[in-house]
Design goal:
alpha+beta, four-stranded antiparallel sheet, 2 helices, 53% helix, 17% strand
């Protein structure tokens, strides 16, 4: 069940990234269309009216908008490819409640687990006794460990 929830969360995260990317792409395309329009108007202003200053300003605005929109488009594509959310693996330690038995069992966290909870799972060494949750922790990967020298 936990894996199913993790897969659903990943799918929702991926679809959210795609939606943001789609909206961003739509906005960028609109800005690009306006930039091209500004460039065409600047050419028309220069050829028909002969106003060099207005044509230069419109061309500058059009080129600046075109450059910024292309930059934003490429950056957003690269950034969405780099975004990856990793759900940490949470583990639960079960210990036998019998005094002579030192059996420990580690399993994945299940919803409803808490420390000192008696679990109906029998001990592997002495099947007549139950186990108790003694620790809940996140599994740390080797690359996450940092050592200060």
């Amino acid at each position: 069940m936990r894996m199913k929830n993790m897969v659903q969360n990943q799918t929702q995260t991926e679809s959210a990234n795609k939606k943001i990317s789609t909206y961003l792409t739509l906005i960028v395309l609109i800005v690009m269309a306006l930039a091209i329009t500004a460039i065409f108007i600047s050419v028309e202003t220069y050829l028909v009216a002969g106003d060099q200053l207005a044509a230069l300003v419109l061309a500058g605005i059009g080129l600046l908008a075109m450059t910024l929109s292309l930059f934003l488009l490429f950056q957003s594509r690269r950034q969405t490819a780099q975004v990856k959310i990793e759900v940490p693996k949470v583990m639960t330690t079960l210990e036998c409640t019998a005094q002579g038995c030192n059996s420990k069992t580690v399993r994945e966290f299940q919803r409803g687990d808490y420390v000192y909870k008696d679990v109906d799972i029998p001990c592997p060494k002495c099947p007549t006794t139950k186990q108790m949750i003694t620790a809940i922790y996140k599994e740390v990967k080797e690359k996450e460990k940092t050592f200060n020298v």
